Amino acid sequence: MITAIRHVGLVVSDLPAALHFWCDILGFSVVKQVDEFGPHLDAILGLKDVRLTTAKLAAPDGNVIELLQYHTHPDNTSWQGQPYSTGFTHIAMAVKDLDLAYSTLSAAGVTFNAPPQLTPDGYAKVTYCKGPEGVLLELVEVLNA
Which of 40, 73, 94, 135 has an alpha carbon 20 to 30 Å from 48's alpha carbon atom? Predict the structure, then answer.
């Protein structure tokens, strides 16, 4: 039935700020950005008179994150879940040098639960940080592939 995962969608309240974080800080690139509206979108979303801007961002490996800013149906609340909350909790991303990523992101004001931690088996270093809208990002550096 399913042949692939196309992208993961993330609703944001401030698209320019989110683009700065995802592109300028994390290194994603904008593949496509478009203003969307119309009866087809209303039907898909189950809303009326929806207007939004979407931006599809590609990671260096080609995986895609879609940022969505709703202009007509703003929520303006950030995700308040915890790592153990039911449902989607985080996006995991691979990095080459987690210590460097940690210091770069910390200097940019990104908050972390803890500095990078070595897994007990020595396979990887891992940490969690918060991105825009409170989304949890898991950063992983594989040490022994």
Answer: 135
**Is 142 exposed, middle or buried (CB count within 10 Å of its CB: 0-12, 13-18, 19+)?**
middle
125, 142 in Cβ contact below 8 A? no
Say how far apart CA 64 and CA 134 lie, in whole Å: 19
Three-class secondary structure of residue 132 per DSSP: helix
- Domains of the chain as residue ranges with CATH: 8-70 (3.10.180.10), 90-142 (3.10.180.10)
Q: Report the C-alpha gap between 68 and 11 in whole angstroms.
A: 5
CB atoms within 10 A of CB 65: 20
DSSP one-letter code for 23: I
Amino acid at 17: A
pLDDT tens-place string over residues 64-100: 999 999 999 978 777 777 888 878 889 999 999 999 9
> Which is nearest to 41 in space by CA: 8, 68, 63, 14?
68
Strand ranges (E), the chain: 8-11, 29-37, 51-58, 64-70, 90-94, 111-112, 117-118, 124-130, 136-142
